[in-house]
Description:
Blueprint: E1 2-14, E2 17-27, E3 31-46, E4 49-64, E5 75-90, E6 95-109, E7 112-125
Antiparallel strand pairs: 1-2, 2-3, 3-4, 4-5, 5-6, 6-7
Amino acid sequence: MNGWDVAITLPHIYQGLGITADGSGDYSKALEQFNYMIGPQYKWELNRFRFVAHVLYGRAQTRVREPGSTFTEPSDRQRVIALGGEVDVPVSDRFSIRAVQADYLAASAFGSNRNSFRFSTGLIVKFGKH
């Protein structure tokens, strides 16, 4: 499945511990899934790299993509848990490149388990003093 991922993070709550809210959408010809999650993260730096580990919990909506179907039918809402992390490479004080983000997503859809891996890359924009 292909898609998008957006996160908002408060990274410095206490000694590397922070909180992040994540939203994503994944699409294929037959299905689409939207994930909305929140949870703790821990960040540490080594040389020029920033490493982050997180555990996210939330809701997912999986929908069968058929001609004539709507956003709510046929669909299923369920819990979703994501375990993973990311590696960021700073470019400047405000911008970083996310070299890789890898997550294991555990969800269930239409009565069966739907466990998968999610990989992404992208641009990080920092707002504020940190």
